[in-house]
Structure formats: C-alpha cells, structure tokens
Amino acid sequence: MPQPVKRTLKLVLAYDGADFHGWQVQPGLRTVQGLLSDALARVTGCRVLPQGSGRTDAGVHALSQVASLELEAAIPTGNLAKALNDLLPATIRVLSVKEMEAEFHARHSARAKTYLYRIFREAICPPFLARYVYHYPYPLDEAVMQRTAKMVEGEHDFTSFAAADPERGRAGAETSNLRTIFASSWERPGEELVYTVRGSGFLHHMVRNLVGTFLLVGKGVLDERGLRRILDSKDRSAAGATAPACGLYLKSVEY
Questions:
Q1: Among 50, 71, 100, which residue terminates a domain?
Q2: Domain end position, chosen among 73, 100, 127
Q3: Which residue(s) pair with 66 in the sheet?
Q4: Calpha distance 139→133 (Å, rounded)
Q5: Which residues are tagged catalytic?
Q6: What is the pLDDT of residues 94-144, one digit of tens each?
C-alpha cells in the first residue's frame, strides 16, 4: 500500500483581528492559529499547527497573512480552501492555498513585510469603522510627520521601539534587534492619516511604537533631533506610547 505523500502548503489568509486574542494559539483563548488548526483537523483528519509569517497581536488585522504547514492528506488545494472557509468564522477567510517546495516556511522564507496603520482624523468616527481605525481627532502637524517618517529607513537597532517579547528567550529565537526598513511614509487619503512601513522584519509592537512616537512629533512634543536621539538611545522608555492595536494591519508578506 503506497505511503501518503507529505506536502508543504502555503495558505494566504485575511482576518478581522478584533474578535481574536491574536494569531498564536493560547490555551483557552480564541486565536486565528488555533481555529485554523481545528478546521484543518476536521477537514483532513490530520492535527497540524500552521506556522504564520509572524504573530499578530490581539486586535490586529491581516489583509494577507501567510501560513505554512506539512500535510499528508491528498485533498486538492482548491477544495481545501473551500472546505476551510466553510468551517472557519466569517471573520477569517482563506484567500488561497498553494503547494510549495518542501523548504518553504512562512516565517523563515519571508524577505519583507508591509504593515499599515490607519488613524481616523475627523471629529466623529463612524461606529462601523471604530474597530478598524485609531480615532485621533486632535491637532497634528501631519507635514512634519510625513517628513520625519523617512528617518527610520535603513538598517537600525530598533530596541527603542521594541516591547518585551517572551518568545525571544526560547531556543532558536533571533536575539538581534537590527532590522532594515525599506520604506516608511505617512499619507492623507481623505479622512484618514495612514502610515505604511515595509521592512525586512519587525520586533514585538515595533510598528505601533513607531506610530506612537510619530504622534509625539505631530503634537510638537518631539522634534526631528529628538526622534534621532530616541533611535540611537536603544531605550524603550525614551519612545512614545504604544498605539492601539485596532488601527494596525499586516498588509503583505514577500518571498
């Protein structure tokens, strides 16, 4: 009798993070990874834990999260995507399933990620937007925020913008806080102020801490030299507060 062939699959997902305690499986809590693992077990009869390109926190959304897994079930990729969407809550959608080379890994194979952060600037935030944006109607010098966004581009030690991460101490976990930011910009499409950042990788809460610090620049509390000092200080306490999770989206992952 032929042995089942092990396949490496790449799943692309979108989800509304407001309903979940983040991506990573946690005992007794509703997470994206946990629900996806349960749905895979029901469809294929195989219990696997899909590995994400990164861990989105509670309340953070994803337009294009990538997960990888090894599976011995022979179900066609198109049928698998449909079956998973039939079981998953409507706030999680599997956009595609693709068979990959055995070496592919959603996190280790990633070359770049792009995040965006949405700030709603009008006086009244529509209730249908409230869980998808950070409502900040107060005065900001948006022009200086746009100008200073470029200051974090390039390779830097981003310790000042990294929250404590319990995963960092585990065997095999990366310990360097050096990251390369390829592009960093603020734009004003209509009623929103949107931050877009593309980099080689990101530390725990790094994007939200950058946003919180740029808000200090916009309020006039911090100038360009002050931002440079924070970056150079490698001291988390020197930077701004962590911006709320609701405005953050994982936009894309590149391989």
A1: 100
A2: 100
A3: 12
A4: 17
A5: 57
A6: 999 999 999 999 999 999 999 999 999 999 999 999 999 999 999 999 999
